[in-house]
Amino acid sequence: MSEAEYIKEYKQQLLADFNSRTNYDNGRFYIPIAQRLIEVANLQQGHKILDIATGTGIVAFAAASKVGAQSKIIGIDISTGMLSNAKQKLAASGLQNVEFIEADAELINFEENSFDVILCSLAICYLTNITAALHKWYSFLKSGGKIVFNAWTENAFTTSVLFRDVVAKYGIHVPNPNALLGTTQKCQQFLLAVGFQKQNITIQQEQFGWYFTPDVDNAEQIWEINAKNVFGYQVQQLAPSKLQECKAEYIKQVQALPVTYQGAWCDASIFFVTATKI
Ligand SMILES: C[S@@+](CC[C@H](N)C(=O)[O-])C[C@H]1O[C@@H](n2cnc3c(N)ncnc32)[C@H](O)[C@@H]1O
Question: 55 CA distance to ligand 1 centroid (A)?
Fold first, then answer.
């Protein structure tokens, strides 16, 4: 498969995945992580803000509540489904300074030097060319403006690491979406490569995660999440009997995860990254 064909198929899968997430805002960590990103961003009144891969607008609305009516917030996303939820919330809010645009963050163009802050929460790992995207975003920033994004650590999501390990035994390579940005050094390298300077980059690691009961029902649910998302869907290539075998092995291994009295721990540590353009 050529790279262009791969990207086309990947983006179709991405859309299929996100267009179907009708209950997105009920996810356990989207809102707390967005709120933390907004704290880290230290937004000011009057800022012009771009929220890349805004999804249902969680970050854009949190930003709007901080900066007031003098600011402008533009949220862009590739998924019609996610954006339609954002647009419904916008209509209900009556906010006049928030706008949502359907676009691919890797292709969209804005004027150079036009934003004070570019935000991107829980989405940079979905891009097919992070360096090229960051180059663009750097050019959209005013001098003194900043990019604030987060990125999961490379071993985030204990149950997804286990999923990749188990399916690999069945000959299926599921890419680790957190491999590229999953360490402090990697985040820094990407930013240095597009023109930020080391002294203007701040990266802080924070621990997110949760305890869960590793029983059959939960393990099955976690399998479904992994086997249907844009990275794990490749496991569906297995013949039905192999797929069942693989799933059964995964469920067994989830049940065997170490437990404390609180349950099994699914670690989801994350970096919050700020880079200011001088
Ligand atoms: C996990 S959600 C995060 C949404 C939102 N930032 C939040 O924190 O709730 C990832 C989002 O990235 C979007 N996305 C992925 N690739 C994209 C691209 N190339 N251009 C625009 N949006 C993209 C998806 O459609 C999805 O809405």
Answer: 5
Is residue 259 a part of any domain in this protein?
Answer: no
Look at the block and give the residue holding tokens 């249902």: 56
- Whether residue 130 lies inside any domain: the answer is yes
- Tell whether ligand 1 has an atom less than 6 A from the beta carbon of residue 86: no
Taking the C-alpha atoms of residue 49 and residue 74, their distance in angstroms, rounded to an integer, is: 6
Query: Which two structure tokens, joined as six digits, stand for 248?
Result: 């059964």
Q: Is the pTM of this model over 0.90?
A: yes
Q: Look at residue 184 and tell me if it is in a domain.
A: yes
CATH label of the domain that carries residue 88: 3.40.50.150
Residue 249, ligand 1, Cβ within 6 A: no
Backbone φ and ψ for 23, nearest 5 degrees, come out as -110, 25
As for how many domains the chain has, the answer is 1
Which one, of 113, 23, 97, 94, lies nearest residue 60 by Cα? 97
Q: Which atom of ligand 1 is nearest to the CA of 120?
A: 6
Give the mutation target among 24, 59, 79 for probing the ligand 1 site: most ligand atoms within 8 A of CB.
79
How confident is the model over 192-216, as pLDDT tens digits?
999 999 999 999 999 999 999 999 9
Q: Is residue 239 part of a domain?
A: no
How many Å is the maximal CA-CA distance in the chain?
Answer: 59
How buried is 199 (Cβ within 10 angstroms: 0-12 exposed, 13-18 middle, 19+ buried)?
exposed
Domain limits at 102? 3-156+176-210+268-276
